[in-house]
Each structure stands twice: as structure tokens, then as C-alpha cells.
Amino acid sequence: MMQGNIWVSPSSRGLVQSMTLVVKFELNLSGGVDFIEPGPPSNSQLRGLRVILADDDGVNRLVTRKLLEKLGCHVSAVSSGFECLSALGTAGSSFQIILLDIHMPEMDGFEVAMRVRKFQSRSCPLIVALTASADEDVWQKCLQVGMNGLIRKPVLLEGMAAELQRVLQANIGM
Where is the Response regulatory domain (predicted)? Predict the structure, then answer.
């Protein structure tokens, strides 16, 4: 949540030799001047956006949900592909974006996207993949099943905002 970084430097034997932690803090000087890190990019387009988030990892789900809420989105979070499809079946037309972890057990994000696209148009709801994968071909796989965007983990506020805005802009008028 503090958008910091952590590095571990191994020794030649593979053991942890040193650890570096970088965290952003707000600095308050006694002179009454506040130096505050700039906030996320303008997110007026994201404010009020109805998002369903599907991620099987509880920590990732919580962090991603909090980031989406910080952007002004209304978020429903589920922990599996089956729960996502069930929620879409009851309120599918109310969600504007589906944010899917593509590596969930039982039913992964690719399968969920294919099932959604089988019964819905390519632009409603928009589907954005979440992945920790560094594979170059992930984006091509996402496009093949009808996804509209891709956010790589670890999820950062600015990157998430930029990708969601890009997806929304690219699909206006579809």
C-alpha cells in the first residue's frame, strides 16, 4: 500500500547477504510546508466504474481492491472463476469491467473470459487480465479469448489507472 520496493541480494552460495527496503513517506517540515508525493493520474473517468475482481489469492485480491477503490471504482471481489461467472449471471449487465487473474485454479481467467464472450459482446463488459507472468505471449493469448487489457503484478496504482483508462478510451463507441 505504500508503493515501496524490496530487494534481496544473495551471496555466492545463494544465501541472503543483504536486504534493501525503500518506502515512500510523507515529509512534514516544521515550517508548515507539506511535501506530498503526487497522487494517481486524473481518474475522473474511473470514478464510479463498476468492477468485478476475481483473484484466488486473498492478499492480491485485498490490495487490488483497495487500489481500485482509491481510484474511485465500486468493486465486488470474488475468489474464483466460478464465483465470477455466478456474479455476472445475477448482475452481469451492471459491471463495466471484469478484472481477472489469469492463473486461478479450477477455472482460470482465460476460461472465464471465453465463457463471458460466448454470451456477451466484445466490449461489454470489458475484460482486463491480471498476471504475474513475464511471458511475452500472454497478451496474445488474452486477445485471442476476447480480453481488452492486461495489468501485470505487482499491481501499482499508476499502472492500473493508466491501463484501465486506455481500455476505456479504446472501447468508446464499440
Answer: 50-168
Domain of 66, in residue numbers: 50-170
Per-residue burial over 122-152, b = 16 or more CB atoms within 10 Å of its CB, e = otherwise: eeebbbbbbbeeeeeebeebbeebbbbbbbb
Task: Name the domain count of the chain.
Answer: 1
Residue 28 maps to a domain: no
Q: Give domain status of residue 16, yes or no.
A: no
Percentage of residues in the chain having pLDDT higher than 70: 71
Query: For 18-33, how does the pLDDT look when each residue is reduced to its tens digit (9 = 90+)?
Result: 656 565 655 554 444 4
Cα distances (angstroms) measured from residue 29 to each of 22, 25, 33, 42, 123: 21, 13, 6, 27, 49
Taking the mean position of all CA atoms in its chain, how far away is CA 83? 18
Cα radius of gyration rounded to whole Å, the chain: 18
Residue 88 lies in a domain: yes
Q: Quick check: helix, strand or coil at residue 83?
A: helix
Average pLDDT over residues 96-106: 94
